[in-house]
Design a protein that fits this description.
The protein folds into 3 domains: 89 residues, Orthogonal Bundle (Arc Repressor Mutant, subunit A), CATH 1.10.10; 98 residues, 3-Layer(aba) Sandwich (D-Maltodextrin-Binding Protein, domain 2); 99 residues, 3-Layer(aba) Sandwich (D-Maltodextrin-Binding Protein, domain 2). The chain is 48% helix and 17% strand. It has 13 helices and 12 strands. α2 crosses α3 and α3 packs across α4. Belongs to the LysR transcriptional regulatory family. This is LysR family transcriptional regulator. Keywords: DNA-binding, Transcription, Transcription regulation.
């Protein structure tokens, strides 16, 4: 297939719609019905497209058709192209309604608790007319949304293993995941409660599947321990906080959650194998808007403040942990 033939007017948008529909329906007859055209028209259009690309796209089966390896390649790219066009139409509608393009930010718990809210406040102070849309989700969900151009950037725990080459990661600071409990929790009376001892309490764990959930399960496995029996799966901070404050539950959460909340505290039990890099994830294959760049600058400013607080708290907690007093202890974490 010559590139000039693709961009020279021979390849039509309706042909992309057609092959995707055939793949979804599994037959020319089903595609004809779905698109309200005749089966001969479908056959003719497929033949024309095969002439353009120079290969067979479908093979006939006893019941319908299936794509060839060439067909699979073209269908995958057709889906992506049609998806991009649909998202472009949605974004055009958003701009028409809002008067300007909204800044779409994805975040997970590590970013949503303090880093992103403070940065948005700073951005809106200088650019009050910029509409900002925040979407929460797991790192996996948000990475996929970023690759699909459904969000402009992502704030929170970094996961360089996801979509290698398609995403660019900007590390802002390190924040350990610690076990958070209510003030006055019985476990705070122990100098350093073990993970085995903490299994006796109710646990609040991230939903499956998520990166943090997998990492926590690996922590238990490395110590030869089964997962806690009494478990609530939750990723909503308001729900988790209410349960923590009102019960003896324990929850692995970013250090800053226990540091900034007057009703919560941190246990000195380490989860050293859980990664802790916090930052911004950007698309590697396209530029971001000027408003997105302003938000990144604001995030960097806020991150410096948070990083300083975390360093000071960890020094203080390490000092407490060297004695026998109760309370919380920060992780001996590396800092950027």
């Amino acid at each position: 297939m010559q590139v000039s033939e693709v961009f020279g007017g021979r390849l039509k948008l309706r042909q992309l719609v057609l092959i995707v529909t055939i793949a979804d329906e599994g037959s020319f007859v089903g595609a004809a019905t779905a698109l309200y055209i005749s089966q001969p028209a479908v056959t003719r259009a497929v033949r024309e497209l095969e002439e353009i690309v120079g290969v067979d796209l479908f093979v006939r089966r006893p019941r319908g058709v299936s794509p060839t390896v060439y067909g699979e390649i073209l269908i995958d790219q057709a889906r992506a192209a049609l998806g991009n066009l649909r998202r472009a139409a949605q974004q055009i509608d958003e701009v028409k309604q809002a008067g300007t393009r909204p800044l779409r930010v994805g975040t997970n718990l590590a970013g949503a608790y303090s880093l992103l809210p403070r940065a948005i406040v700073a951005l809106k102070h200088h650019e009050p007319g910029v509409p900002v849309s925040v979407q929460e989700g797991t790192a996996e969900e948000l990475s996929t949304a970023l690759v699909r151009s459904e969000i402009d950037l992502m704030v929170g725990r970094l996961d360089p293993s996801t979509y290698r080459g398609a995403l660019h990661h900007l590390r802002l600071y390190d924040e350990a995941v610690r076990i958070v409990v209510r003030r006055g929790h019985p476990a705070l009376a122990e100098p350093e409660p073990t993970l085995e001892a903490l299994r006796a309490y109710p646990w609040i764990l991230p939903l499956r599947p998520s990166q943090l959930r997998r990492e926590l399960e690996e922590v238990f496995e490395r110590q030869g321990l089964p997962l806690p029996v009494d478990v609530i799966e939750c990723s909503t901070m308001l729900t988790m906080r209410s349960i923590l404050v009102e019960t003896d539950s324990v929850a692995p959460l970013p250090t800053y959650v226990g540091l900034r909340d007057e009703e919560l505290d941190l246990l000195p039990t380490e989860l050293a194998t859980v990664p802790r890099a916090i930052g911004v994830t950007l698309p590697a294959d396209r530029s971001v808007s000027s408003h997105a760049r302003l938000l990144v600058d604001a995030l960097a400013d806020v991150a410096r403040s948070i990083g300083t607080e975390l360093q000071a708290e960890e020094r203080r907690l390490r000092g407490r942990g060297s004695g026998s007093g109760s309370g919380s202890e920060g992780a001996p974490d590396e800092q950027p």
